[in-house]
Amino acid sequence: MKNKIKIVIPAAGEGRRLKPHTHTTPKPLLSVAGKPIIGHIMERIKDLNPQEVIIIIGPNGSPIEKYLKENYSLNFQFVIQEDPKGLGDAVYRAKPYFSGEPCLIILGDTIIDMPLENLLKEENWIGVKKVEDPKRFGIVEIRNGTITKIVEKPTEPKSNLAIVGIYYIFESPTLFKALEKIIKEDVKTKGEYQLSDALELMIEEGIALRAQTVEYWLDCGTPEALIQTNRYLLQNNNYFKPRPDALIRPPVYIHDTAIIENSIVGPFVSISEDVEIRNSIIKDSIINQGAYIENSLLEHSILGENSIVKEKPLHLNLGSFSIFETS
């Protein structure tokens, strides 16, 4: 059955909470632990041998298509969501590529670190995890492991089981039928067609959805979450070549082309290609391609591509081509 599965990855979101970085880079291509977010997702699905991987991209999503085609040999289909109307709308646009195959949906800004192959059986499930603040998420209510209700960002949550951005629908025709119904009847929540509303409709029609616990859910939706995910992934993705004039404290990811002189780097730092770092101390940060850092102390920071930092800031969230200097 694994060869028949099709995977849908909605990747058209604007990434408002990750600005200024998403002004110049689509959210799924933001780097974390030495690789774009969507690259980490691909590493976790490529061994499933999917029949097709359908990527929903926005009007400016061509860099996503280019990256995936250049780095992975999966059978990709790219669908442009010209006028995004919600996650339900994004998934529904994959309908023409299905003729009854099981559907695995993974959100393009979420890395799920769990073995999937043994979970793709003849059943439907939604990935969930207990959270401290369920008001921020879509949540599920369950009875004996089966989902009885789905609520999108409830004001008074009756459960702390958050939906984490991975869904497996063995009976995919029922999903697309439910999506079609909410779109035709213009059923919106918070102004958008929600996938959760279609799943709730499936439950009301008697289709069983199981709650699948996800232990490692790596959110990439905010700068703080991106740095936290970077920490987690570097523990299994430590890579660097020693530099004679630098002290490297693992875990880190340092691209071979990066120049580091008279500096201390790490722990939990990702450094992309063509970065230059001189006379600086950097920890717990993500430094993107072409950035230049001199005489600085950086912690809990994200620097966009080709940004320049000089003189002692402590915490920065700079977009591409930004310049920060104190003199």
Automatic annotation (TrEMBL):
<dbReference type="GO" id="GO:0016740">
    <property type="term" value="F:transferase activity"/>
</dbReference>
<feature type="domain" description="Nucleotidyl transferase">
    <location>
        <begin position="8"/>
        <end position="235"/>
    </location>
</feature>
<keyword id="KW-0808">Transferase</keyword>
<dbReference type="InterPro" id="IPR005835">
    <property type="entry name" value="NTP_transferase_dom"/>
</dbReference>
<protein>
    <submittedName>
        <fullName>Nucleotidyl transferase</fullName>
    </submittedName>
</protein>
<dbReference type="Pfam" id="PF00483">
    <property type="entry name" value="NTP_transferase"/>
</dbReference>
<dbReference type="InterPro" id="IPR050486">
    <property type="entry name" value="Mannose-1P_guanyltransferase"/>
</dbReference>
<dbReference type="InterPro" id="IPR029044">
    <property type="entry name" value="Nucleotide-diphossugar_trans"/>
</dbReference>
